Amino acid sequence: MSSRSWFYASQGQQQGPYPEIQLRDLMVRGMITADTLVWSEGMSGWQKAGEIPGLMSGVAGAPGAPGPFASAQGYGGGPLSIDLPLWAFLGRSLLYVIGILLVIPAPWVATSFYRWIVSRTYVPGRPNIAFNGQVGDIWYVFIVMALMNYAGEASDYLQLIAIPVLAFLSWMVVRWIAGNLSSDGQPLPIAFNGDALTFVGWQVLMFLAVFTIIGWAWVVTAWIRWICRNIDGTQREIIFNASGLEMLWRTIVFAIGCAFLIPIPWLMRWYATWYVSQFALVEHGSLANA
After folding, report:
1. Which of 74, 129, 134, 288 is exposed most, by the fewest CB atoms within 10 A?
2. Sequence-separated (6 or more) residues with CB below 8 Å from residue 290
3. How do residues 234-286 score in pLDDT, each as one tens digit?
4. CB-based contact 134:37 (threshold 8 Å)
5. pLDDT at position 94 over 50
6. Residue 271: DSSP 8-state
7. First to last CA, the chain
8. If DSSP codes are grouped into helix, strand and coil, which group holds residue 217?
9. Could you please report the per-residue DSSP string of 126-188?
């Protein structure tokens, strides 16, 4: 999927810029047709969307074959994407870390951070995704998580206790986020139904895999796929495409680059953008039939 940004003309006015994944979402919804004029950097002038090779491929109702991500229900499919302004992302990330370190502000900074991240995420067929969780919903979870981070640093014994406790609290956060998503102001009937014990088991396995130096990357990808399989209430199936090797080398590059300090903002955006792009939506059962 291209990372280009696009503009389109509507009622005599320029709209955009939009990441290509969001542009395709507008095509699925019928807001952009083959006759709509579009433009992206590097083009000599405005062109009809249907005249640009490959732009409308995979979009339901577009000229040519419907492609692997087309949807009979009109929702479309394909990878997710996220638009992260460099300095806004860095600033909000620093605020999140500081809030967690100070413990008391943790529920406020965490809720605000999740709302912002979700609002910058583009989901095919689901416009204006938002997170509607409130600070008071599970405020105690973030307080305990912040405190457990300090407990884990106090002694090795407390660190061992902190691992399963933090895992259980993370399970609660995942359920909270999944259950408070909306699209165009309408709540989505999404729920994470993975059981807590298995979630904690994955976290413990992750901790043990760190001692293998590289094995953690394969554990992480398998864990994320398990989470995706246990998300219910969606019109389409959520998949995670990254391999353990891709997770490993990108994380190594990220860690080495951060050691030089200056590249940190760019590396953070690069890593987060890639991570989100590895999630995709497909029709239920389409993988089994492929």
Report:
1. 288
2. none
3. 878 999 999 999 999 999 999 999 999 999 999 999 999 999 989 998 886 65
4. no
5. yes
6. H
7. 20
8. helix
9. B-SEEE---TTTSHHHHHHHHHHHHHHHH-HHHHHHHHHHHHHHHHHHHHHHHTTEEETTEE-
Structure-token pair, residue 164: 């399963």
pLDDT above 90 (res 75) = no
Specify the amino acid at residue 256. Answer: I
Can you read off the two tokens belonging to residue 170? 């993370």
Query: Cβ contacts of residue 218 below 8 Å, gap of 6+?
Result: 209, 244, 247
Q: What is the pLDDT of residue 67?
A: 45
Type of residue numbered 107? P
**Taking Cα atoms as reference points, which of 229, 249, 252 lies closest to residue 240?**
229
Three-state SS sequence of 74-132? CCCCEECEECCCHHHHHHHHHHHHHHHHCCCCHHHHHHHHHHHHHHCEEECCECCEEEC
Cis-peptide into 17, omega within 30 deg:
yes
Unique residue bearing structure tokens 């943790």: 106
Phi, psi dihedrals of residue 277, rounded to the nearest 5°: -65, -15
The pLDDT-based confidence of 71 (bands split at 50, 70, 90) is very low
Cβ neighbours around 290 below 10 Å, total: 7
Distance of alpha carbon 25 from alpha carbon 62, whole angstroms: 12
Cβ–Cβ under 8 Å, residues 165 and 102: no
